[in-house]
Amino acid sequence: MLKKVIKEAFPTVLAFTMSGMYSIVDGIFVGKAAGDTGLAAINIAWPIPALITALGIGIGTGGSVLYSHYRGRGEQKVCENLFELTMTLLIGTGILATILLSLVQKPFLEILGAAGSVQTEAIKYTAIIIAGSILQVAGTGIMPLLRNMNQSLGAMLSMAAGFAVNILVNYLMFRLNMGIKGAAFGTVTAQAVVVMAGCAILWKTGYRKWRPLWHGQYAADIFKIGITAFGTSLAPTAALIFTNLQCLRYGGNAAVACYAVISYIVFPVQYFLTGIGEGVQPLISFYHGAKKEMEVRAVKKIAYTAEIIFGITAAAVTICMIPYIGGWFGLSAESKQCFSSGMLISSFAFLLTGTAKLNVSCLNAVMQTKKAVFMTYIESLAVSPICLFLLPAVWDIRGIWLALPVTAGIMTGIYGLIRKDRKNEE
Predict the structure, then answer these.
(1) What's the CA dihedral at 25, 149, 361, 231 to 10 degrees?
(2) Phi, psi (rounded to 5 degrees) for 213
(3) Which pTM was predicted?
(4) Hey, how many other C-beta atoms are within 10 angstroms of the C-beta on 177?
(5) Which of 15, 238, 298, 348 could make an SS bond with 405 (beta carbons 3.0 to 4.6 A apart)?
(6) Buried b / exposed e along 398-413 (16+ C-beta atoms within 10 A)
(7) Cα(333)–Cα(335) distance, rounded to whole angstroms?
(8) 365 vs 12, 61, 146, 296, 356, CA distance in Å?
(9) Residue 403 and residue 384: Cα distance in Å, rounded?
(10) Other CB atoms closer than 10 Å to residue 364's CB: what's the count?
(11) Which residue intervals of 151-215 are DSSP H helices?
């Protein structure tokens, strides 16, 4: 079973990691080109590209979980319909996102705290991101479909191609003095490559025709399952919004720039750890649909062990690299002063983040969507905001950094209570 899990999950973990590292690439080039102002702008504006990405992940995951479930039951015709419906939803949502976000771009940025030169830079960045919404929704949505079609390697290679293009375009834009616009062009261009690569793989696997399809019940099921993945993807961004506002309150733009660099490290690690859960999800969904509960338990055991090992490793490596990270991103001397303690405290969250995210993936994979939705949204809408509000009031800016590991600990405890109640019911 271990070999099978590695074979299925490893490409997904790498794909998620590369997805998270997009922000690192953007941050390095923006920091060198625009300094603290650019870093603050891209961090405050980040909820917009994150929302677009979450829409694709939510729809793609919802469709892919159902795809694996019915594939496990041997209902191939239903699987084909689910594929066409999911693609229809991805394209339609991408077009709708472009229209709606274009209308609310400036007031939304103001709500997020953008003002002055930071707002000017944020508008430049998000205008390009919004224009390319359909590519980002489709690109992120195709990946879970490929993984659930036994094309995990293809999904990873597609992400690798996009990641390489992102680096190349960012570098070229940097040399052309495009500033923060270059990061946006890099992101959109990379997603275009991911879409083309994903479509090529789908063509090779036999999906050579696509027709717009609507099925009310299946669409409702996709949204019901996908809302958890949507929330899981957006949860770090919800925390980012509250954190940015608290940084502005307790430390100004320098603190926001400091948090930007912390998030550039935290997000890829979170994506990596989340990728373990998403990597085993197709196996758990398939075995659950085939009513092979012994295999489900075996896959879960391997996944939880991996989360613990990699969480400890990520924390240790990050702590060792703290003296060097600030310089890579071009932080000012003022921002560097708070970075070291902030990064050190945030690193301890890695010890629990992986298992907390895996808990949600497992619930979703076995169709316990209500519990998965509860776990996802209580974190982003209640636990994290409360921690970010209360802890700084006691420990000032250090309380902001403490919110991340404290939130992970609370979510682990909540899942323990849910499991205890389930065992009592049984």
Answers:
(1) 60
(2) -135, 140
(3) 0.69
(4) 9
(5) 348
(6) ebbbbbbbbbbbbbee
(7) 6
(8) 15, 10, 16, 10, 15
(9) 7
(10) 29
(11) 152-175, 180-204
**What is the length of the chain?**
426
Amino acid at residue number 324: Y
The tens place of each residue's pLDDT in the chain, 426 residues long, gives: 777 777 767 777 776 777 667 666 766 777 666 666 777 788 788 889 889 988 998 998 888 888 877 877 777 787 778 888 888 999 999 999 999 999 999 999 988 877 788 888 889 989 999 999 999 999 888 888 887 777 777 878 888 888 889 889 888 888 888 878 888 888 899 899 999 998 888 887 766 666 777 777 788 888 888 887 787 777 767 777 888 888 888 887 778 778 888 888 888 888 888 888 878 887 888 788 788 888 888 888 898 998 999 999 999 999 999 888 877 777 777 677 788 889 999 999 999 888 888 888 888 777 777 888 788 788 878 898 999 999 999 999 899 999 989 998 998 888 888 776 555 444
Look up tokens 């405290």; give the residue.
345
95: its two tokens: 């077009």
Longest dimension (CA), the chain: 64
What does the block give as tokens for 301?
Answer: 């055991």
CB 11 within 8 A of CB 153: yes
Q: Which two tokens stand for residue 262?
A: 């912390």
**What is the secondary structure of 68-137 as a DSSP string?**
HHHHHTT-HHHHHHHHHHHHHHHHHHHHHHHHHHHHHHHHHHHHTT--HHHHHHHHHHHHHHHHTHHHHH
**What is the rounded radius of gyration, in angstroms, for the C-alpha atoms of the chain?**
21
For residue 368, which amino acid is it?
Answer: Q
Q: Which two tokens stand for residue 33?
A: 């080109």
First to last CA, the chain: 27
DSSP, res 211: -
Count CB atoms within 10 A of the CB of residue 290. 15
Structure tokens belonging to residue 325: 């990270």
How far is 133 from 144, CA to CA, in rounded Å? Answer: 18
178 by DSSP, 3-state: which? coil
